[in-house]
Amino acid sequence: MSLYNACVPQLVKMLGNLDRWLDKAVEHAALKKFDADTLLVARLAPDQFTLARQVMAACDAAKYAGARLAGKEAPVHPDTQTTIPELKERIQAVAAFLGALTPAEFEGAAARVVTLSFAPGMVTSGTEYFNEMALPNFYFHATTAYAILRHNGVDIGKRDFLGSVSLRPA
Amino acid sequence: MSLYNACVPQLVKMLGNLDRWLDKAVEHAALKKFDADTLLVARLAPDQFTLARQVMAACDAAKYAGARLAGKEAPVHPDTQTTIPELKERIQAVAAFLGALTPAEFEGAAARVVTLSFAPGMVTSGTEYFNEMALPNFYFHATTAYAILRHNGVDIGKRDFLGSVSLRPA
């Protein structure tokens, strides 16, 4: 099992799914005749991130996963997006960054020493960082974004969450 | 990177986290003087699973991940739990099942042919099943359970979601 395969194709696909949930939110808003961007300040608890921040956090989790495992600098994306088109642009920028990473850049990623801004003086390994932080964090924010949309009536379901999966005739 | 490491320790830890969120729900209910089990029918959208079903689905995603990758029969857990103690028992049973799986049983798991009840006549590989279905599904249901609790005022935060992570002095 390669870290590249666990990270890049899956996160690129999930970012594409997230992008499509936002499209469905726009469709829902058009149908109900409200401004879709009002959804961006929705949240499930007063002390939890808004939808906009959930999307930004999902983008960052994916971006840093790829950057840290490939040993590359992550592109900078300030948290300034206030519209769905701006958020979609950010999602697509992160997907493009990840998609340009190569399996060769992931060689040695499992054992790579990873430093984290929230834990100064501490390190972890590429595998531990990916399994215990990057991936749970990504799915946490992606699922919460999805949940905020579901809670607000957007017509998305589990298949929209998972996206296409690899199945072959037996 | 081994599928055993990506699967067993991480899912056992996450099940332990889920178990503790339910403890925090019980504490919250005691403080607010309501019956904690009323939370189990809460949901974020009328056509989404309740909290109880989210917990059951997270348990099943974890259980089948371990069983399919290790090539073992999964223990049967009917969806009959209606109280938090019953759900905690199920979570702990799944954690115990996973915890008893060995790295040796995961040998060849990446290439193992996996069949899925929802896709008759189709197969996938162990790695694809884990990356594209089992793990996203597990995090989907665990995060939604967490979100329902947060939405209902239970005092849990991101650290409760992630649990302990592997960090060492640099």
Q: Can you put this structure into words, describing what you see?
A:
The structure is a homodimer of 170-residue chains. By secondary structure, chain A is mainly alpha-helical. The first copy, chain A, has a single domain (3-159), classed as Four Helix Bundle (Hemerythrin (Met), subunit A). In chain A, 57% of the residues lie in helices and 5% in strands. The first copy, chain A, is built from five helices and three strands. Chain A has helices at residues 3-32, 51-70, 84-99, 126-151, 158-162, and strands at 113-115, 122-125, 168-169. In chain A, strands 1-2 form a two-stranded antiparallel sheet. In chain A, strand 1 (113-115) and strand 2 (122-125) form a beta hairpin. Chain A is globular and about 50 Å long. The two termini of chain A are 22 Å apart. Chains A and B meet through helix 1, strand 2, helix 4, helix 5 and strand 3 of A and helix 1, strand 2, helix 4, helix 5 and strand 3 of B.
